[in-house]
């Protein structure tokens, strides 16, 4: 992907989960798949463990009809002890995978204001440390003057934006979707009225 990654995570997308990350094609789901966690294991038992590696989706990628393009670290972590060099020689291997809950001990969902935001006229945010087994389907911002929630646009990947955001402190809520339910969760804290591009703010929401 490009420098920020197709999900918009930037450095977070390269280093989160001990750098066990992946780009995906079919599972990207127009960006909704960003932040999802999967257990991936290769189907070469002489080289690979039964546990495989747990990865976080942080980018879009496709090639050679693959579902996952694993980071070099994650790819090697599928191997049995001392077998990583042999596994790297394959380059492309058959895998099996399943969706698993993301775990970020000690972290709530963090709202990052993207660096290209322009105070006070344009706000773009991305959600980090998205725990549990949910996809973020939508983000809304509270419009105090008319007392209603206003939808933010999915700009790309996991980045949501709004032109002329409300003035003053900002409240967000997130629509979370899983295979069994869809629910709204409101941030328990607010983004300060004088928010800054590049800053991060704790939502005080922790998912299981």
Please explain how this structure is put together:
This protein has helices at residues 11-15, 72-77, 84-90; strands at 21-24, 37-42, 53-60, 68-70, 95-100, 110-113, 122-128, 135-143, 148-151, 153-156, 159-163, 172-177, 182-186, 200-202. It is mainly β and 208 residues long. Strands 4-1-3-2-5 form a five-stranded mixed beta sheet. A five-stranded antiparallel beta sheet has the order 10-11-7-6-14, with no helix packed on it. It has a four-stranded antiparallel beta sheet with strand order 9-8-12-13, with no helix packed on it.
Concise account of the structure shown:
Helix content is 9%, strand content 36%. The chain has 208 residues and is mainly β.
**Largest β sheet strand count, sense and barrel closure:** 5 strands, mixed
Determine the strand fraction and express it as a percent band. Answer: 35-45%
Strand tally = 14
Could you tell me the mean pLDDT? 94
Shape: elongated
Strand order, main sheet: write it out. 4-1-3-2-5
Give the class from helix and strand content and strand pairing: mainly beta
Radius of gyration: 18 Å
Number of helices: 3
**pLDDT < 50 stretches:** none
Give the quaternary arrangement of the chains: single chain
Distance between the termini: 29 Å
Helix content: under 10%
SSE order, one letter for each helix or strand: HEEEEHHEEEEEEEEEE
Domain Expansin-like CBD: 121-203
Subcellular location: Secreted
Organism: Linum tenue
Main location: secreted
């Amino acid at each position: 992907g490009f420098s920020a990654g197709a999900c918009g995570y930037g450095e977070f997308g390269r280093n989160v989960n001990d750098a066990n990350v992946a780009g995906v094609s079919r599972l990207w789901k127009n960006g909704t798949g960003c932040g999802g966690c999967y257990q991936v294991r290769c189907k070469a038992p002489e080289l690979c463990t039964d546990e495989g590696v747990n990865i976080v989706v942080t980018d879009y990628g496709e090639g050679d009809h693959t579902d996952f393009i694993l980071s070099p670290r994650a790819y090697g972590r599928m191997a049995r002890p001392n077998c990583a060099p042999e596994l790297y020689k394959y380059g492309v291997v058959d895998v099996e995978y399943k969706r698993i809950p993301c775990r970020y001990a000690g972290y709530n969902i963090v709202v990052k204001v993207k660096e290209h935001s322009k105070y006070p006229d344009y706000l773009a945010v991305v959600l980090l440390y998205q725990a549990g087994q949910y996809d973020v389907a939508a983000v809304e911002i509270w419009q105090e003057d008319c007392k209603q929630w206003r939808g933010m646009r999915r700009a790309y990947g996991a980045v949501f934006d709004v032109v002329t955001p409300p003035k003053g402190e900002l409240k967000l809520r997130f629509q979370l979707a899983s295979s069994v339910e869809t629910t709204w969760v409101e941030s328990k804290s607010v983004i300060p009225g004088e928010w800054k591009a590049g800053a991060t703010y704790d939502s005080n929401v922790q998912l299981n």
